[in-house]
Amino acid sequence: MNSILNKLTLFDYIIVFAYLAALLLIGLLSSRKKAEGAGHFLANKSLSWYSIGFNMWATNVGPSMLLAFATVGYVTGMVAVNFDWYAFIFLFLLAVVFAPRYLASSVRTLPEFLGIRYGKQTQTILAWYSLVKMLISWLSLGLFAGGFLVRQILGIPMWQSVTFLVALAGLFAYTGGLKTVAKVNIFQMILLIVVSALLTGLGLSKIGGWGALVDQTPPDFWTLIRPASDPDYPWYAILLGYPVAAVAFFCTDQAMVQSVLGAKNLEQGQLGVNFIAWLKILSLPLFILPGIICSVLFPGLEDPSLAYMTMVTTLFPTGLNGLVIVVLIAVLVGTIGSSLNSLSTVFTMDIYLKRINPNADNKQIVQVGRYCIIAGCFIAVMMAIAIDQIKGLNLFDVFQSILGFIAPPLTAVFLLAVLWRRANKAAINTILTFGSVLSLGVGVCFLWVFPKDQYDFWPHYLMLSFYLFILLLFIGIIISLVIPPSNFEIGYGKNEVIVLERPVLKVKIAWLLLFITMIILYLIFS
């Protein structure tokens, strides 16, 4: 599908080149004052709430959001917005339970956080698993979605699409670290809101308004809670299975949490997490509605994954298609740039400095981080091509199921470590090793070896994630009760002096307003 390429005018090309020039200028200006050492990765602890919120949203959105949400909106309506609206509970958990502990510990990475309590071995194991998670869930999935869209626009092979895209996205993480990525992402996300709102507005106008859209769509398109008999999104699967991925995604993932670690203080971090929760409300009008509108304007698409590009190529007037290419570049740079920075942070801080060269100077630290970014780009391209071979699931379910199989060990480990003082090193390390092999092995079988479209014995992928989490949690509890803590843990318990800050009034009010808003939204659409 390359009709958008045929519609490009001189004005479109001017828009694209002007955007790229502005992006490069912002990146260069923000990276002139270079941070050294760890400051390169955490923006010298200088991020304000709006930078944190926009950067987390940019990391979360990615091209997969535009593509997958429009696809599932075309087929099933708004039910998939649960994956963004339901997230406010777990973002709240990050803000009030996890973030105070992370910032009070003055850690640079989440493996380092567990390493303080359980030792270097735990830190190293979690670091390697975090690297695998970021390569799969962030870099590879983001690149795949971006490459999928570029393939639709230009008609070029997947490997060419993802190679071009990752080269552009890696530039900002390579040159400026988190500070540059965060500043670029503010610009990116404002652009995304404008262009996506324009697309939704044009679609509603063509249909005849909101009332006409509701009248021409099935009633179940506008409900968040589906019956247990629903084959795609039964209520119990979302209620039980989604939290497993959400805790891992929002509370334990370096790519998401790194912006909070770079906050000026806890208040700014908590307000930044609150801000992204508000931004996630926009998923319905910006990402889901274009798919629903497309189901009315263009029913019977042979491939629902073409919904977004069908809307773009049909509704955007000649001369504005350059904006679409711009926003695709924007969301890709946002996700991949943040992910590459987080990947390099974990490898450099938790593996290189801890295991390979503890005496590295600031220059060596930054250089190793940049080498890691280059390596991450190559690996992500290979994995994106492999994901292109998955059959039997729509794009949205591919993304969510992959996250669901990566999540159980991380969710079990961090909930035990943060909420239960009895949890010990033996339990944590067992979950991170055996649990990771089990969870990823089941995921490989589900997606590639015995794919769901050929074998009907599988439960819903969200429930499969939930079952794995419960099993690993049970194993962790039993081991912690049976095996005594190590000498390192006993020493940590005696010397622990972390003092947790309480949320200030401003933070409490922000979260209270959000909870009220989300309850109202769920009552309206239930």
From TrEMBL:
Matching InterPro entries: Na/Glc_symporter_sf, Na/solute_symporter
In terms of superkingdom, the source organism counts as Bacteria
Q: Does the keyword Glycosyltransferase apply?
A: no
The record's similarity note reads:
Belongs to the sodium:solute symporter (SSF) (TC 2.A.21) family.
Query: Subcellular localization, per the record?
Result: Membrane
This protein's record includes keyword Transmembrane:
yes
Q: What is its main location?
A: membrane
Q: Which topology term describes how it sits in the membrane?
A: Multi-pass membrane protein
Q: What is this protein called?
A: Solute:Na+ symporter, SSS family
NCBIfam families registered for this protein in UniProt: sss
Which keywords does the record carry? Membrane, Transmembrane, Transmembrane helix
One Pfam family name is: SSF
Originating species: Sphingobacterium lactis
Q: Which GO terms describe its cellular component?
A: plasma membrane
Q: Which residues cross the membrane?
A: 13-31, 52-73, 85-104, 125-150, 156-174, 186-213, 233-252, 273-298, 318-347, 368-387, 399-419, 431-450, 462-483, 504-525
Q: Any idea which GO molecular function terms this record carries?
A: D-glucose:sodium symporter activity
